[in-house]
Amino acid sequence: MGFLRIGIILLIGIAIIGSVNGDENESFRKRPTIVKMVKGTKMCVKDWECGYGVATGGPLAWGLCYNKEMSPSQDYCDDYFKLTYPCTPGAQYYGRGALPIYWNYNYGAIGEALKLNLLDHPEYIEQNATMAFQAAIWRWMNPMKKGQPSAHDAFVGNWKPTKNDTLSKRLPGFGTTMNILYGDSVCGQGDVDAMNNIISHFQYYLDLMGVGREEAGPHEVLTCGDQKAFNPTAAPAAAS
Question: Where is the Glycoside hydrolase family 19 catalytic domain (predicted)?
Answer without folding.
Answer: 49-214
